[in-house]
């Protein structure tokens, strides 16, 4: 495939940052085999952000002919005391519910689940043994303690929190994962950028290659409030990527805050209830959680127009692109409630295969297994 096509697919939305396009171009031109990975902690339910948004990018990379891997970070989940801090439960859920949910998400995003490799952290560590430990030491020797502390937002933790030593170790381990698997495209949401920036810096010195980092947009949680929203919009306008990604990480759709999230297998009535209750300021198009679902999920690969019905007058507005919808919303020609109904209908339709898979199909026993484990942190 031509380098321009690879770049186009890689940087297409939901991608928000590629560090750097020049480095990716160089690798393609040198004929380097491109190896991507994205890692997940294994704990609660898979939502629109972890499932659909993350897998949309994996599907783009599949289409670009890049080797894609989903890394199920069992050791990192254990360090972060997920699923009651029990490693065997974490492994069971990783190979069961989690893998299944991400595969269904790949399908919904228009890709082929069989084209993506699923690897458990412990498989890599067992295979490499001393070499993995050496890689963790190499990264640690090349990184200061204060840098590690500043990077713990990749664990979904705040800098000021009291941490176990293992939670500090989490950071060099995540960076070492990249080099241990020979990954040259490290991918994650914007909240993962600090680990990847360390990898880029350490790479050349300690591992004789510099990976690229690819970060996708973080979908905000549904439960934003006016004050937080104003603070976020302000942080976004200031344009400091680290500051903004820390701020958005606090309010992103997150499995540990179920009230902020739509899970991929939610029932239609739950999708509707959650969307109807979501923060959706009239006329505001920035960081509006409902509009973002329209932009990133509904309009992603859509060829047919979206219809929004004005419930009061019965008038129908037809939008053939997200930008048209955004413009009308900005001009307050679309009422938030009408937008919510249209988004809820479409989203429920898109999620239907996941709902069926996990309630009537082969995913059911995996979901039941996870639901029987009630501790999530
Ligand atoms: N809201 C979101 N939108 C897009 N991507 C997300 C979102 N939340 C998480 N991700 C991405 O999914 C990957 C796994 O993240 P993570 O396991 O922290 O998800 P989470 O649901 O927020 O979990 P937790 O609640 O435990 O923090 C990361 O690359 C992360 O950036
Ligand atoms: N830090 C990632 C999980 C992860 C762990 C190890 C990795 O190598 C990559 C990703 C998260 O928040 O979910």
UniProtKB/TrEMBL annotation:
Q: What positions does the record give for the motif labelled 'KMSKS' region?
A: 252-256
Q: Which reaction does it catalyse?
A: tRNA(Tyr) + L-tyrosine + ATP = L-tyrosyl-tRNA(Tyr) + AMP + diphosphate + H(+)
Q: Where does L-tyrosine bind?
A: 37, 170, 174, 177, 192
Q: Which UniProt keywords apply?
A: Aminoacyl-tRNA synthetase, ATP-binding, Cytoplasm, Ligase, Nucleotide-binding, Protein biosynthesis
Stored Pfam families: tRNA-synt_1b (PF00579)
Q: Which PANTHER family match?
A: TYROSINE--TRNA LIGASE, CYTOPLASMIC (PTHR46264:SF4), TYROSINE-TRNA LIGASE (PTHR46264)
Report the function annotation for this chain. Catalyzes the attachment of tyrosine to tRNA(Tyr) in a two-step reaction: tyrosine is first activated by ATP to form Tyr-AMP and then transferred to the acceptor end of tRNA(Tyr).
Q: What is this protein called?
A: Tyrosine--tRNA ligase
């Amino acid at each position: 495939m031509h380098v321009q096509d690879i770049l186009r697919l890689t940087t297409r939305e939901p991608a928000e940052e590629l560090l750097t396009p020049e480095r990716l171009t160089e690798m393609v031109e040198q004929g380097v085999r491109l190896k991507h990975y994205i890692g997940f902690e294994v704990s609660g339910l898979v939502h629109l952000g972890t499932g659909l948004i993350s897998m949309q990018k994996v599907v783009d990379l599949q289409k670009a002919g890049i080797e894609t891997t989903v890394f199920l970070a069992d050791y990192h989940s254990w360090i972060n005391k997920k699923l009651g801090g029990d490693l065997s439960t974490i492994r069971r859920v990783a190979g069961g519910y989690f893998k299944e949910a991400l595969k269904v998400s790949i399908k919904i995003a228009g890709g082929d689940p069989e084209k993506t490799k699923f690897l458990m952290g412990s498989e890599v560590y067992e295979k490499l043994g001393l070499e993995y430990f050496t890689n963790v030491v190499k990264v640690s020797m090349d990184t200061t303690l204060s840098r590690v502390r500043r990077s713990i937002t990749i664990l979904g933790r705040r800098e000021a929190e009291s941490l176990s030593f293992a939670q500090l170790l989490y950071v060099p381990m995540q960076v070492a994962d990249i080099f241990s698997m020979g990954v040259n495209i490290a991918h994650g949401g914007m909240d993962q950028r600090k680990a990847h920036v360390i990898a880029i810096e350490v790479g050349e010195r300690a591992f004789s290659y510099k990976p690229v980092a690819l970060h996708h947009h973080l979908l905000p949680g549904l439960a934003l409030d006016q004050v937080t929203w104003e603070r976020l919009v302000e942080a976004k306008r200031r344009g400091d990527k680290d500051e903004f990604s820390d701020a958005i990480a606090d309010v992103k759709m997150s499995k540990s805050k179920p009230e902020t999230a739509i899970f991929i297998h939610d029932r239609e009535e739950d999708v509707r209830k959650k969307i109807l209750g979501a923060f959706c300021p009239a006329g505001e198009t920035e960081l509006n959680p409902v509009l973002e679902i329209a932009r990133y999920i509904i309009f992603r690969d859509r060829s047919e127009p979206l219809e929004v019905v004005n419930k009061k007058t019965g008038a129908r507005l037809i939008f053939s692109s997200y930008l048209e919808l955004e413009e009308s919303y900005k001009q307050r020609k679309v009422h938030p409630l009408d937008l919510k109904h249209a988004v809820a209908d479409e989203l429920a339709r898109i999620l239907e295969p996941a709902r069926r898979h996990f309630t009537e199909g082969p995913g059911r026993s995996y979901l039941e297994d996870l639901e029987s484990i009630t501790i999530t942190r």
